[in-house]
Amino acid sequence: MSSGTQIPIALHVPPSQLEQFQATSELSIAQAVVQDAYERKYDVVCMPLTTEAWKTRWQEMCLTTSSGVESPVARRDAKLEERAERWRAGEGFRRDEVTITKLDEAENVIAMASDWIELDSPDEGVRFDSEVALRQEISYAAYLNVHTFILPTPRNRAHAPDYARAVNAAFAACGPHSFVQVSIRIPIFDPTAFRSSSSFVHAPPTTQSVHGSPSSDFSVTWEMWDIIRTACAYSTRLSITLDLTPPLPATLGVLQRWAAEPTRHIFLPASTFIPNAKGYPVLTKATQAFLRDIIKYRPTIILSNTAAGVHTNGGESAYSQYVRHLEKTSPALQAMETPGTLENFAKGYMDYLQAPLQPLMDNLQSMTYEVFEKDPVKYYQYEEAVFRALSDRQPDSRTVICVAGAGRGPLVAGCLRAIERSSRNAVVYAVEKNVNAFVTLQERRDAEWGPLVTIVYGDMRTVELPEKADILVTELLGSFGDNELSPECLDGAMRFLKPDGISIPASYTAHLAPLSSSKLFMEVQSSPDQKFAETPYVVLFQAVNVLSGDGGGVRGKCGGRVQECWEFEHPRRDIPLDSQGLPYSNAHNTRSATLNFHIPHAGVLHGFAGYFEAVLYADVGLSIHPDRKEHISPNMFSWFPIFFPLRDPLYLPANSELQVFLWRLTDKRKVWYEWFAEAFLPKSAIAIPVVSAGGSLSSNGLMSPTPMSAIPAPSPLLDAPALGLWSSSAFADRSANATPRLQVELSTSPENDEGENGRIKIGQTTLHNPSGRSSWIGL
């Protein structure tokens, strides 16, 4: 068994190797296989659920004709047909057709479905009989309490929806109380490499030809997976067994796409390894980097064919030893075990949805303060900002510092250290509205701080101080900068400042990026209440993929990978104030942003990642921006990013553009966000040929001959000229030899056309959280 927190390593035992094991009076064949794997230092066994006898019977019933020739379309023998019908009606397995019969035999076993099952066969009969076989196998796996059941690789892109529907039907057949996890074996690209030699019916060339362009190869298997998980409604019982048999592509975006998917197993055959200079098995640098990163999700590594002597040195154990080496040297895992890192601090909270704080409405608990105060980076940055501000003042001046929202006092302590470092004459006022935290402040004043600190109880928006401040220090930032009402709070606190006073922070910006994450989407969809899909959450991202790329995209008009939404600066001296020094309304704190993102690789949009960056003073700042945080405030863990979810996924093809609209809105009682997105495809990225007589478009955009019936005949109930896609002369000649010609034209209407750099709209989301109906922050 695996020790500690090590990832499990499984031994793959194919059907041909099962014949090497014999049942004894003490052990069944399955138990013998498991015991042998344990002796060879494996943690789990991955083996087929059925035997060759089952395959033979299925072929006889469903494929063999009276002439003995395999043909799914020929007339079958009457007795065979009767046998097949009885089986389709619900006949189960025979004893010699399965490898496992008892509950204890299924322990520590990952079962594999028959690899000859073709749910996506081009032949309808094979598809339906394969589906019956799959339901029978998965039902038997559930009966034995098998935890994971791996399905064969989908091989035919043209019939991926057939595969997906059959998997969903198999889930339904198991019933709501089944706990069996179904995993789809998926290569990163090129599914034709996995066409089994036992495949009974071969697809037409057009459905197998995916070798046109590398980008097409890299997307086709992910697209099949996306079809399957969508048809299964993102079931939490569905996962991926990622097959690394083909060499990994060097395109980083292609690999990152799989990081956002529920990868539970990695299939790693000996043939994927290459020999090093001494003949030992190693992996390519691209595969090493990919595995080191994906290991943080704790997948089971399934090693196959390791005893076949593929490499000259090292023996069978060299493969598992190499995997352990990658695990030990994984930067992600090392960070999780290193105290003081964000990954170590947040263990157990990865991809966990948390509601943002409502600091104005709720008084925080002491434990919440305790967690925040564990971050030394944030408080050092604040101390450094105050020190710089004090150092820039006249040495003989007296400085009044106001800490508004003092909590339990960490900012007050940082200000006192900055005063001591700068050797300046200064006093501190600490304002706090949390009546419970105010007790802690009193204790710290008496025990630690002394007369330099005056504590004041009350809301910073209404309380009065005995004198004006030179420096206002606040810790009101949220994951999106302004989402915990820092602008509104500081509007009220600006009354404390002298005309030349400064605020720390001086400004902060909000940033956004489009995100794909099956896990987060499933978490949001776990509740039928629509408000869950219209609520921003605080999340430490792990199993996610940022869909956007740098650069301007095909049209050269898109922004960067992560884009700025808006900025707030303090103090603002251009706002009209009432007699109490407060703004008449909150309209000046509304914001809107329109962002254009380039999507280089096909993906599914599940929401948006939000970040913030703050300037405290001069060049001292705070940042959770993914590309800049390590340069501005490295190892800071006080804030996780924010996640704006979508109610429904939005598919984005490669080289598409995503236009995102985000609003920060307010009324007299609350502040809320609304969000919306549109997807476009640049016209210059589209090559749409004209479909002429006798032809149709193949999956790779090339022409392929199809029967005349592939082009639909016009309906007499429709007004043909209004169809738009058909030329007016298409039906002029209604003779038997006439063939309609499909004219595909792109719209050139002014509202859709931007010259040769135009784009075509291909999708949109719904407007999320209109009028703050689902989520808001109370004033």
Automatic annotation (TrEMBL):
Keywords: Methyltransferase, S-adenosyl-L-methionine, Transferase. One of its GO terms (molecular function) is protein-arginine N-methyltransferase activity. Residues 343-504 form the PRMT5 arginine-N-methyltransferase domain. It comes from the Eukaryota. Transmembrane segments: none annotated. Residues 507-777 form the PRMT5 oligomerisation domain. Residues 746-779 are annotated as: Disordered. The active site is at 475 (proton donor/acceptor), 484 (proton donor/acceptor). The record marks 372 as: Critical for specifying symmetric addition of methyl groups. One of its GO terms (cellular component) is cytosol. The keyword Protein biosynthesis does not apply. Residues 763-779 have a biased composition (Polar residues). Coiled coil: none annotated. GO terms for biological process: methylation; regulation of DNA-templated transcription. S-adenosyl-L-methionine binds at residues 369, 378-379, 432, 459-460. InterPro entries: Arg_MeTrfase, Arg_MeTrfase_PRMT5, PRMT5, PRMT5_C, PRMT5_TIM, SAM-dependent_MTases_sf. PANTHER family: PROTEIN ARGININE N-METHYLTRANSFERASE 5. Belongs to the class I-like SAM-binding methyltransferase superfamily. This is Protein arginine N-methyltransferase. The lineage of its organism: Eukaryota, Fungi, Dikarya, Basidiomycota, Agaricomycotina.
